[in-house]
Structure formats: C-alpha cells, structure tokens
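Lesson 9: reading folded outputs for more than one chain in a single document. The general rule is that every protein is listed as its sequence immediately followed by its structure tokens, and records are never interleaved. Here is the first one.
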Amino acid sequence: MIDHGRNFGAGSFAVGIQLLWVGMVDGKAIVERRGDRFARKIRNAGLVGQAITKPR
C-alpha cells in the first residue's frame, strides 16, 4: 500500500477519493469543464487506485 500521509492530509485525501470517483463516472464532463490537464490528473489517480485495489 502506498503511504499517502506524506502527500495528503486526511481532508485532502477524502477530496481526492471523491475526485477519483467523479473522474471514473463523469470524466468527459470534467474534461469539458476543467480542461485536459485536470482530467489527466484524475485519470492518473484512477489508474493508481486500480493498481492499489486490484488483486495481484
């Protein structure tokens, strides 16, 4: 498991989880609203989340 404590406070981590879900469900709308750079961060967060949660 990755140690998120160095990079995120508890609040930021909770927001990150929400953004990750939004990115997975509504990624296209985020691209339209926030632009490609923000969407890329969300997509990368989603890939990291999948890597963590997927059984090896």
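And here is the second record, again sequence then tokens.
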Amino acid sequence: MKIAHRLRGWLVVPLVVTACASAGAGPVLIDPRVEQAVAGGRSRVLVEVRPPITRAQDDVLARLTGTDFRLVRRFEASPLLALEIGASALAALRTMGDLVVRVIPDAVVPPAGDSTPQR
C-alpha cells in the first residue's frame, strides 16, 4: 500500500511542476488590424509583456533577433514595447505566449492644433 502511495506521489509531482511552469502562459492575442497591416509591410505595434516587465522585455527582444523588427520605444513603468515589425517578427511574437500577452496597433496620434486650455 505504501509503495502504491509513493508511486502516485511521483506521478503527481511532474504534473504540478509542469502546471506551475506554464502558469501565465497562453496564446498571444494578435489584433486583426495588426495582421492586416503586416500583410502589407512593416507596421508599428505595441507588445504587452507579462511580469516581470524588464526581464520579459529583454527576453522578447532577444528572441526577436534575426527577424524584421525595430525597437521604437521601451517603456519602463508599463508592460509595453513599441516595435516596428514585419511578417517574420510577427510570426516570432506568436510563439512567445510565455512572455507576450497581446500585440495591438500603435496608432500615432498627432497633437491637436489649438487644444491648449484658455485662461
């Protein structure tokens, strides 16, 4: 009886370790507008990373090496990277569910002409 109980424990431990290691990992959500934009060429995007922010940003940039991407901005206080990407970078981002939550378009919004408050 004790042997069966011990064997059961040895079978459960790897399952628990695997579940904990993959906790937080999931499919990367790619905004359909990103898909369309990248199909036509390079596009600016925001990549939301999982915590810890700095480490995830470092790992994403390292894994993107060799793809068609350019770092536009690295945010220190928010879990975002602003990138310009092409098809190979988007394909790489898709595989980073352990680091990346989602990829959305980065819309550059010009300042409004006379939007300053009047006194």
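What the second record shows: The domain at 29-105 is CATH 3.30.70 (Alpha-Beta Plaits).
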